[in-house]
Design brief:
mainly alpha, 3-stranded antiparallel β-sheet, 13 helices, 61% helix, globular
């Protein structure tokens, strides 16, 4: 770089996090962890100093020259000083950034959290005192009026998903960082998701709250449903049969969602809490890189990814998490090839025969429970998006 050149640095934020400093370009959705001296150099460049002036000021403070060209190149490659990175493949973003920070903080205040905790505790007591209210998978099969109740359940479940993601968004807004809602995939599962990358600028407590906010919302709703079913079971309330059936089915859906969050081998809420508590901001990426290097070592090939910059403490966590990643992904792919794909193939074969003129295969699809057929459609959409993402990622690598 020419000594008289000036680097155009966009507005950015910074936050001290342990031994590093998180620098953020919120407008571009880029958040980087850098050493404190790098943050100092960035501030010098942002103040309007030339490359020579910033280098001299840096050398005077630290007693050694700064490689400004390499520093600027790294920030540009990361998107910090370049065009905004594209949204992740297979994801369409929708913004809900207009919620005031004050409103979000009132909704996630200590009294509000205390109310949620009390309801969750009462819900657990209800399930323990009356185990019959805990639903089984049979709760998803409605008889009679299976189609009407199934459609209502789908609408309620989608509403619960929105509440889950909105809880994440509100917790992020309460921490003063931007957030947005969207649709994406976890492996081949179609999911709603909240982009709150800026939460890494918040304190560790605020980060953990933002990551568990969705689960707290799910637990609170599940507790309310359990209390409603307990009141009906004990004859404290006389509820319509259809309302009871819907409450049981929605409670089963909520409990299933909570189990999904325990799949920490993909980026779930619990995974992000684990990454926060261990201080490994890129736990998934570092683990996948470590496993790739390990595979190359097995075949006696040179190491492909340089991980010398990863602290030893984080590498110890990565080695442990690698086993979780391997076992979890192995079970997930086993379920895909031995359960999901055979079921999809059977349904598609029935549909194909029906479209070919044979009405018999279509009868169980149209007259049976609607939920399995709709679940197949959602699953198929997730697989298509996942495969498209893999193909696009491969195209970027070539």
């Amino acid at each position: 770089m020419q000594p008289e050149a000036r680097v155009i640095v966009p507005p950015f934020s910074e936050h001290v996090d342990g031994d590093d400093v998180i620098i953020a370009n919120p407008a571009r959705g880029v958040f980087l962890a850098v050493p404190p001296e790098a943050a100092v150099l960035l501030r010098l460049l942002a103040s309007g100093q030339t490359v020579a002036e910033a280098g001299a000021a840096y050398a005077a403070q630290y007693g050694q020259p700064a490689d400004i060209a390499d520093f600027v190149e790294s920030l540009t490659a990361a998107g910090f000083l370049d065009a905004p990175p594209a949204a992740p493949v297979g994801t369409r973003r929708y913004h809900f950034a207009s919620i005031p920070v004050g409103t979000a903080r009132r909704l996630w205040s200590r009294p509000a959290l205390a109310v949620c905790g009390a309801l969750i505790g009462l819900g657990l007591l209800a399930c323990a005192s009356e185990p019959a209210i805990v639903p089984s998978p049979a709760a998803l099969v409605f008889d009679p009026d299976h189609l009407g109740l199934s459609l209502v359940l789908i609408a309620l479940a989608l509403g619960a998903v929105f509440v889950h993601e909105l809880a994440h968004l509100l917790a992020a807004r309460a921490a003063g960082v931007p957030a947005r809602l969207g649709i994406g995939t976890r492996l081949w599962e179609l999911v709603a998701e909240t982009d709150m990358t800026g939460i890494w600028l918040a304190s560790r407590r605020q980060r953990c709250l933002a990551f568990v906010a969705g689960m707290l919302a799910d637990l609170t709703l599940a507790a309310l449903l359990a209390l409603l079913l307990l009141a009906h079971q004990r004859a404290w309330l006389g509820l319509d049969l259809n309302l009871v059936l819907l409450a049981r089915a929605l409670l089963f859906v909520q409990l299933t969602r909570l189990l999904w969050e325990l799949y920490i081998f993909v980026p779930t809420d619990v995974y992000y809490v684990l990454a926060t508590l261990t201080g490994c901001r890129n736990l998934m990426g570092d683990t996948q890189a470590w496993l790739l290097n390990w595979c190359w070592r097995l075949v006696r090939r040179p190491q492909r990814i340089d991980q010398s910059g990863v602290p030893a403490r984080e590498l110890r966590v990565v080695r442990i998490f690698a086993w979780v990643w391997l076992v979890g992904r192995g079970l997930a792919f086993a379920s895909l090839f031995f359960i999901t794909l055979p079921v999809l193939a059977a349904y598609l074969a029935m549909l194909g025969r029906g479209l070919g003129g044979d009405a018999n295969p279509l009868r169980p699809l149209l007259e049976g429970p609607a939920l399995p057929l709709l679940a197949v459609g959602v699953q198929l959409a997730g697989i298509v998006l996942w495969l498209r993402g893999l193909l696009r990622a491969r195209g970027h690598m070539v």
